[in-house]
Each structure stands twice: as C-alpha cells, then as structure tokens.
Design brief:
The chain is built from 5 helices and no strands. By secondary structure, the protein is mainly α.
C-alpha cells in the first residue's frame, strides 16, 4: 500500500539532496572565491540557533509542498477507481501521510546538516 508513496518520497529526497548539494557548492564557491566580503566579523562570531532551525524549516516547507500532492496524484486519471478499493480509506491516507512526514523530517535533518556544513567550512561557526 505504501510502496508507490515510498518511491515518490525516495525520488523527491534524491532530487532534494542534489539541490541541497548544488546550493552548498555554489555558496561555498562564492564565499571562498572572495565574492563575499565581511570587513567586521564581530556580529557573526556565533550564529543564533534560530537561524539554523529556520533555514531547515524553510527548506523542509518547500520540500513538503512537493510531497503534499500524493493523494491528488492517485486520483488523477482514474478517479472512479481510486476510492473504490476494498481497503480502509483512513488507513490508506494515514500511511501516505506517515511516509510523507518521515521524508519531510529526513529532509529537514539533511538541510540542517547542510547549514552546519556551510557554517563550519566557512569558519562562521565556533
């Protein structure tokens, strides 16, 4: 029952990971090439944790918007058959939502890891 949603979530995580890696790489190239100048680094001696959590939450929210269409995708093209399966509709929806929530939490952790990697590589985190 959750196989199709697992495949969708896995594909979305793979594509999201590629996007996170590309964003990290681009930001590191810009920072390390001298494209970002910070004459007075006194204000960034310690990055507030709310900034890190906030960046992860924004990334996870964007990711969640892509996963939120799973029930609509199932109805697309074969609506008369989609909800006539001999299974509990509530259980079916709960499994799909559970897989999506697990993928969103994993992407949230990955995006926070990318923020930590960027801050530690650039020396902005003590």
């Amino acid at each position: 029952m959750h196989y199709v949603e697992s495949l969708r979530a896995t594909r979305a995580l793979f594509i999201g990971g590629i996007i996170l890696a590309a964003v990290l790489g681009i930001n590191l190239v810009i920072f390390l090439s001298g494209g970002v100048t910070m004459p007075d680094r006194g204000w960034v001696d310690q990055v507030p944790s709310i900034v890190i959590w906030g960046a992860g939450a924004v990334c996870a929210s964007i990711f969640a918007s892509f996963l939120g269409l799973s029930l609509a995708r199932e109805n697309d093209g074969h609506l008369p058959v989609a909800w006539t399966k001999p299974a509990s509709k509530a259980a079916h929806a709960a499994v799909k939502i559970g897989v999506d929530v697990a993928a969103i939490m994993l992407f949230f952790a990955a995006s926070i890891g990318v923020v930590f990697a960027y801050l530690s590589i650039t020396g902005l985190m003590k």
